[in-house]
């Protein structure tokens, strides 16, 4: 199963649990359960090197269950759902925000309190309009991370190349000094020194271009 699909399925299940949780008897222990989840997150991060999926699962459950426990679409904490969509598109694959948004909107409609009226539906459908923006931001973030990794790898290769070239020129200078016989060896030292200066100037020029970009 592709990673994007498995992450999407997991989050849809978490969304369903977050909506069912306030309807269950466990809702009276919500603070204790939230505390236990954050302890699990801390342990997973500190000792088990847990990935971003654990972050996404815990924050999705906590935020959506909190919203549903405090009035659903009329909750004063409903704005956290907007942050959730954007954060999931950055933490996981951007496309995962699509099933997450669809599941969230669907369950909000299913559990929509009748007394809320049409005004209560507006925040729910606003989530659907935010989905393209979260998808776009996630893809831009993913693209920037790829470029950053490529630049880091290129810079590492450049440092390695420069170190090898400078090391070879230093060996040439050292050999010429140890066996100095006259003008020919002096010319070799000057040549190696000039080559090192050119390499350093080229590297500084490339770094200045990268900074301007």
Walk me through what this model shows.
With 213 residues, the chain is mainly α. It has helices spanning 3-20, 30-46, 52-69, 79-91, 97-110, 121-178, 183-212. Helices cover 79% and strands 0% of the residues. Helix 3 runs antiparallel to helix 4. The longest helix has 58 residues, at 121-178.
List the helices and strands and how they pair.
Layout: H1 3-20, H2 30-46, H3 52-69, H4 79-91, H5 97-110, H6 121-178, H7 183-212
Helix pairs in contact: 1-3, 1-5, 2-3, 3-4, 4-6, 5-6, 6-7
Q: Any descriptors?
A:
213 residues; mainly alpha; 2 domains
- Count every helix, treating DSSP H or I runs of 4 or more residues as helices: 7
> Which class best fits the helix and strand makeup?
mainly alpha
Most strands sheet: none
Mean pLDDT: 77
Secondary-structure element series: HHHHHHH
What general outline do the C-alpha atoms trace? elongated
State the helicity in percent bands. Answer: over 70%
- Cα-atom Rg, whole angstroms? 29 Å
**What count of domains describes the coordinates?**
2
Low-pLDDT stretches:
none
User: What's the count of strands?
Assistant: 0
The proportion of strand residues reads under 5%
Distance between the termini: 39 Å
Oligomer state equals: single chain
């Amino acid at each position: 199963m592709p990673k994007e699909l498995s992450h999407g399925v997991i989050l849809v299940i978490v969304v369903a649990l977050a909506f069912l949780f306030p309807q269950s008897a466990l809702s009276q222990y919500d603070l204790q359960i939230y505390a236990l989840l954050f302890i699990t997150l801390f342990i997973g991060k500190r000792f088990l090197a847990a990935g971003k999926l654990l972050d996404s699962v815990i924050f999705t459950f906590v935020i959506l269950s909190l919203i549903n426990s405090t009035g659903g679409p009329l909750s004063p904490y409903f704005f956290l759902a907007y942050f959730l969509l954007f954060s999931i598109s950055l933490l996981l694959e951007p496309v995962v925000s699509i099933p997450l948004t669809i599941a969230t909107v669907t369950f909000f409609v299913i559990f929509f309190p009748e007394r809320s009226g049409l005004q209560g539906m507006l925040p729910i459908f606003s989530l659907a309009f935010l989905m393209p923006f979260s998808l776009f931001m996630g893809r831009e973030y993913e693209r920037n991370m790829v470029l950053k990794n490529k630049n880091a790898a290129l810079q590492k290769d450049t440092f390695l190349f420069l170190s090898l070239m400078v090391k070879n020129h230093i060996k040439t200078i050292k050999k010429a000094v140890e066996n100095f016989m006259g003008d020919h060896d002096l010319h070799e030292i000057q040549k190696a020194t000039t080559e090192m200066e050119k390499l350093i100037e080229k590297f500084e020029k490339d770094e200045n271009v990268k900074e301007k970009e």
